[in-house]
Amino acid sequence: MKMRIILLLSTVFISLQALAQSGKITGKVTDEHKRAIPGATIDIHQSGRKITSTSTGANGIYTISVNPGTYEVFASRSSFTKKRLVATVTAKNTSTINFTLTRVQSPAAKDKRREVKEGDISAAGAVSTQIEDAKGISYERHAAKSITMDENVYNYAPPPSPIDNAQFYNPSIEEYKKVAENDFMNVQANPLSTMSIDVDRGSYANVRRFIQSGQLPPADAVRVEEMINYFNYNYPTPTNDDPIAINTTLTDCPWKKEHKLLKIGMQAKKISYDKLPASNLVFLIDVSGSMYSQDKLPLLISSMKLLVNNLRNEDRVSIVTYAGNAGVVLPSTPGSKKEKIIAALEKLSAGGSTAGAEGILTAYKVAQENFIRGGNNRIILSTDGDFNVGVSSDNELEDLITKEREKGIFLSCLGFGTGNFKDAKMEMLADKGNGNYSYIDNIDEGKKTLVNEFGGTLFTIAKDVKAQIEFNPTKVQSYRLVGYENRMLNAEDFKDDKKDAGELGAGHTVTFIYEIIPTGIYDKNVRPVNELKYRTIEESVDFFNNEFATIKFRYKKPDGHRSTEMAHTVKDNTLSIGEANEDTRFAYSIALFGMILKDSKFKGNGTIQDVLDLAKNSKGEDEDGYRAEFVKLVKDVKDNISITKR
After folding, report:
1. What's the whole-model pTM score?
2. Domains of the chain
3. Which of 89, 299, 403, 483 has the fewest CB atoms within 10 Å distance of its CB?
4. What is the helix, strand, coil percentage profile of the chain, to 5?
5. What is the pLDDT of residue 556?
């Protein structure tokens, strides 16, 4: 026993001595224009084997401790060439190794799948050329295809920002899914409009991040429904056993005077925090090298600490991390031991590749082992979405999560960071995991998502929620759902209980806006169809003359398998914009703003000034200041950012 203690102390002494004699490698990674590159991966090799890695911060600087010796130092970043330099480190000294990476240029050939607009989309097939680094070492350079998940997902390289901010000022690659806007549908040919609800709110915070950096967001980063649903509205609450209450408003259209707008509001039942069921939460945290910068892992940890400080004794938290591989950092721990949970969070650091799929599998395993029957069993995935080791394609990840959600464990996603952010992947993961997706760009957003809206974000009261609207052909000639393009369903999906749909959290509000072309109004957007033989509009005239539309909703309880259906009739009672309430006018201002940012062909005569006028006059009480912040964003676009035709 005495000998073991001596050996142990000897080992510790040798380790401490080696640590005291270690040196450092530091440096800065810039592009050919001397601009800092944040999030670049720094790999340290010795004798042909990688021994450690790190990433550059927002200022492009990295620092890493190593033992004395000679090392190969590799610097790499998505969309840049990879470089290798040699560093010799002596005891207690620092070796400075700076890198200049060159942006990979795409071939000029036009991508036949779509029109490519310079500065927006980098499109190309893979191309290889030979380059030499500063030491004369030859490498093969690969320019990756911009279509990385399917033909509707493209890489977006934001243009240089006029604001001196490293995290926006550098060339970068972000992924957004290409989505075609909903068109007008002829009621005679398409009497039913069917969709899944959507309570994701990530698009608004992401759009805000672009605007605050002094640039327009890419068109497909703008999901109008998520921008509208970012805000809460004062809808009536349920008065019976249903978890949902329905509210409708029919008004004139502010951007097309001949048209009308139908706003449909859903209010989920509000549950006080102390009455929410116990939570079994698994924090699944990306600690790969790409998470190094301040707007990623450090912000993530700060946001999670806010959540932890609000946990109850009956809640439990586990922490799973993933980089090159996945592991359990903290076993399931009660909410009463906040210091222990926070200490585990504060020890996290970034480095290595991104084995996201392995992390998801580990998190589901941990969640299942600590399952609370009747409770809120949920994985909270926090990442920039950059999966590059193991299962990483959308289809593989979708299959993996679809199988796991049947066990009653939901998956919510929190997106962080810029540069290599994978918006399309994050939205898909939350959708298939029966959860929701939020983007956190600052600590205030972290507080809003994880503290102020804890119930809505993390506790589901109804799942597979679908809506189906039938329009009266004597009143409606054509209709168009504003947003929700990736939530549309077939008419027959409405009654199919096997068809997955959206989830609704406690206290959440969900808003739909339909633009209507009334019957008898000439409009080029109305596409004629043959008159139906077996369905006549006289039936509607005779029996439903005062009805504009009928709305039906179906939902399941969180642990249920059969749907409950409810219906609501919309009367033909059109209000002017001035007669509409503040919530309605504010929702319209966001919808128009989203269409303008997308340069939508459906924005009619709407202008940024129209958005500003609508929003300024409909802020209401605005206790948290979110609506005032929206008004400021609109002003920033109006005064500082030129909106040109995309």
Report:
1. 0.71
2. 20-101 (2.60.40.10), 185-271+461-528+538-640 (2.60.40.1230), 275-458 (3.40.50.410)
3. 403
4. 25, 30, 45
5. 87
